[in-house]
Amino acid sequence: EYRGLVKHTGGCHCGAVRFEVWASADLHIFNCNCSICTKKQNRHFIVPASRFKLLKGAENLTTYTFNTHRAQHTFCKTCGVQSFYTPRSNPDGYGIAPHCLDDGTVQTIVTEDINGKEWEKAVKEHKTIRDMSKP
């Protein structure tokens, strides 16, 4: 267990992919306007890899990459839902889709817009995003 954090569980629409993640009950969500986040309406919060556990469905995941191929956009082969992914900004962590969490563990959500259209500049200027995947 992690002090001050709660265990959230979640997964894709069809239930083939399930995970647990330790994070605050008060989530800080990024709303990115880069090309893929815009198309997918990808909003996410970032956690260290050590606080994420895939419970089932590894064989049902597939990955899409583009441009620098550093972000690993994983999604369910059956229903197509991306419930988590490895963000380019934090390759040592996970971006978790809050709308894929099970009900009951989230208290509040604060959303921060990030200018992914100018990704390098936005990440360079952001004070904390790179540290969000650190344990």
UniProtKB/TrEMBL annotation:
<dbReference type="Pfam" id="PF04828">
    <property type="entry name" value="GFA"/>
</dbReference>
<dbReference type="GO" id="GO:0046872">
    <property type="term" value="F:metal ion binding"/>
</dbReference>
<feature type="domain" description="CENP-V/GFA">
    <location>
        <begin position="8"/>
        <end position="120"/>
    </location>
</feature>
<protein>
    <submittedName>
        <fullName>CENPV protein</fullName>
    </submittedName>
</protein>
<keyword id="KW-0862">Zinc</keyword>
<dbReference type="GO" id="GO:0016846">
    <property type="term" value="F:carbon-sulfur lyase activity"/>
</dbReference>
<keyword id="KW-0479">Metal-binding</keyword>
<dbReference type="InterPro" id="IPR052355">
    <property type="entry name" value="CENP-V-like"/>
</dbReference>
<comment type="similarity">
    <text>Belongs to the Gfa family.</text>
</comment>
<dbReference type="InterPro" id="IPR011057">
    <property type="entry name" value="Mss4-like_sf"/>
</dbReference>
<dbReference type="InterPro" id="IPR006913">
    <property type="entry name" value="CENP-V/GFA"/>
</dbReference>
